[in-house]
User: Fold Lysophospholipase-like protein 1 from Eleutherodactylus coqui.
Amino acid sequence: MAAPCSLARCVVSPAGKPSAAVIFLHGSGDTGPGIKSWVREILKKDLAFGHIRVIFPTAPARPYTPMMGGISNVWFDRYKISMDSPEHLDSITPMCHVLADLIKEEVASGVAKNRILLGGFSMGGAMAMHLAYRYHRDVAGVFALSSFLNDNSVVYKELEGTRQGLPELFQCHGQADELVFHQWGEKTCTRLKGLGVTSSFHSFPNLLHELSLQELEQLRAWILKKLPEVTAKPGEET
Assistant:
């Protein structure tokens, strides 16, 4: 099924003009409003900032092989949920180009590209890693929550020989995750570090394939570290 040219999305915007943006991609079967609500339920407030626009797009509905071909909101198809499976590049690569339009929209609105973070939960984190490390290495950083890349990922191949100017990676993973195993996330982090990516990996005991308050608080702190508020110079508009 061909991906649409424009993605539905919901947005948490600051009161004033944003100087930075976060694009937060949901996991398989979810929606932008769904993960926004999930985050709000855990934090007891929106993932909101005084100077950052947070965008939660929704993946297009498409047949999803792990669901026996059933229709689901997924960023790409998978042959199976396993590190040793080949990547479904026929769906991953086109979606990178669709998501690039969100980056272009932010840049057109006045947000510098090096003030944009890409990330997501589960499949959304994998999609963000493809998007950033294959096509948009000049973004501010990448976050991947309960996510992994396949052993033979094209991301690794395309990073070979590229050691400078790569976005920093922030990873979180539950040690009790029975869908995307903790060691898959750890291995992804190790492989990317070996290819020159500055990365941090945060483990959470007893956490299943889900988000947690501690995890989201650490993510929020990291976002503010990567996208601090910019103080206008004298004579410039605020």
